[in-house]
Amino acid sequence: MRTGSPQRAGRAPHPGEPDAAGLRQAMGRFPTGVTLLTCGYGGETTAMTLNSLVSVSLDPLLVLVSVNREGRMRPLVSKAGTFAVNLLTDRQRELALAFARPDRPEGEAAVRRTAAVEGVTGNAVLPSALAGLECELHAEVEAGDHVLLIGRVVTIHLGDRGTPPLVFHRGSFTGLAAPADGDDPGPAHRPRQSGADRPLTEEP
């Protein structure tokens, strides 16, 4: 004779209440690309590494990035009304690390460090990146301790399609093998040297 409550087949055990550490650990298992978000050019250049780029819509062309609500980037983008997102290659790991730090380069130092040029929106664009998206600010959405910046893409710059992208996974940088035809992703993954130890979307 059975006693106690019957256990439902196929139901996952309840691990307890979720918290920030658990969510960070879970999302760390989700590989993402790595980008450099920029606002301004020349002495006004501000840039930061992030991995929160999302394609939102094709009609109109909209993308989304997430930044810290109290960070230095949000008010700059709000005032400028524009920003650019540069998709980094696996050769730009050190660049990603440099702009993930609180003391990251700014102004002319940032331009020299990235070898950026001025885009049509007046923001820094990296010719060495896989791609660059110049955007006009479409909307800002408050989301907890972050703000979602939704941009309407007005210019697209495409770099060398045969260069593998920089990837962030489990708190480290990794990469993908270059596709054979230089365009479509292949099934093979080539491990790369680790580099970062914190979420790229964090900002002081």
Topology:
Layout: H1 20-28, E1 32-33, E2 35-39, E3 46-50, E4 54-58, E5 61-68, H2 73-80, E6 82-87, H3 93-98, H4 107-114, E7 117-118, E8 124-125, E9 131-143, E10 146-158, E11 166-169, E12 172-175
Antiparallel strand pairs: 1-11, 2-3, 2-6, 4-5, 5-10, 6-9, 7-8, 9-10, 11-12
Strand order of the largest sheet: 3-2-6-9-10-5-4
User: Approximately how much helix is present in the residues?
Assistant: 10-25%
- Portion in beta strands: 25-35%
* DSSP summary, beta strand count: 12
Separation of the first and last Cα atoms? 60 Å
Question: C-alpha Rg, in Å?
Answer: 19 Å
Shape: globular
Tally of individual helices:
4
Mean pLDDT: 83
Give the SSE string.
Answer: HEEEEEHEHHEEEEEE
Report on this model:
The chain is α+β, with helices and mostly antiparallel strands and 204 residues long. The chain has helices at 20-28, 73-80, 93-98, 107-114; strands at residues 32-33, 35-39, 46-50, 54-58, 61-68, 82-87, 117-118, 124-125, 131-143, 146-158, 166-169, 172-175. The strands form three sheets. The protein has a seven-stranded antiparallel sheet. Strand 11 (166-169) and strand 12 form a beta hairpin. It is globular.
